Predict the structure.
Amino acid sequence: MAKLVLGLLSLLFITGNTISQTENRQPNGVLVSVGELAEIKTQALNGVEPYKQNYQAFLHFTDSLMAASSEWKELSGEVIVYDRSSTSPIQLSSTGGKLVYGTALAWHLTGEEKYARKSRSLILDLTDTYGYRNDAEDTFHWGAQGILNLARGGTPYIYAADLLESWPGWSKKDKIRYQVWLRDIMYPKVAWASRWRKNNWGVAGSFSSALIAWYLRDHPDWDLEEISPTAQKLSPEEAFWSHNQHQIGRLLTSDEWKMDGKVALWGILPNGAIPEEIRRGDDPIDGDHLPSDGSGTHYTMTFIEHLTAHAEFLRRLGDTSLYDHIAEDGSGSLLQAYLFVVDNPIKSHCFTSNRINALYFAYGYYRHPALLAALQECGPGNISGQRMALFGRLTRPIVERKQ
């Protein structure tokens, strides 16, 4: 607990020096900076690998999504999520998140404004939506699928909006319109997941809530209202600090951080197991490895993928608390969660072709040989990623260093 308190005090110090910065109309880069994108473009156009191959795969993927999106049903008004599906509506599916972020990246990588225009259009299409209830219910309720779809599918829209800051076509009016929607519609819902859910819903909710607060930092007098599970109003700075704190708490195994945990163990155990995700399959939640490659293993990877995106975002603000966190008993470690899956002495697993994008970010920070081995043995994976740690293969490529 002492380490947690010191970590949170450090986080508060960092928060006070970052989130209160005034708007400068230049992108900060949630998962990649403009400078890094310029370097990727230069290396790719000079034929340097793996930049060239990644660049070509990325543009092909993004162009294909753009073409397919012409068939999407318009998103407007009350949004109803059908069949409790993570792909409803498609704009808030993993596909929608990849398109809006991918087109913002593509604008920086090519200079072609068609990409920026598409990204802007997708973002602004959200701003007259509301509701997000399940189709089988007459009214919205806490726990609705729309909360998760907003937390996971809506968060890459903030990545994209940040990258559009330096494009003249993204006006201050556009930004304020989007910020009001984030404050009034998205934030109360994803904040519920942050406060209450122990599993990957909560991981996505805490990251999404903290990112919204960060993106609203140029409105320090705004109130971010939470309705459930506890009614409260926070400033953007207070919300940023609070949801980052909740993400760290979610990793802990102590009683006060059980939240809505469904089983007798929770958090990230000292050996790296995540019981709240393993329970979704047939493997034992207290085992020393994952015997199967079933739902419990894949949900474990999803939890890790979401958490890695949050850790990478904070790292770019000078805060490595999520990457570095470990409790006195060895629990709560993101690195150990990775090793439990990919470097388990009894049985290891490859991250799936989309989830492996998170591994690029993690290896970029940890430089752990087991993570590199997993990338080399199981990669390269697809170019896009899963839901939140997107395009890691493109933006954090594995490049052989000269001795």
About this structure: The first strand starts at residue 77 and ends at 81. Strands lie at 77-81, 129-134, 224-226, 232-234. The chain has a mean pLDDT of 93.
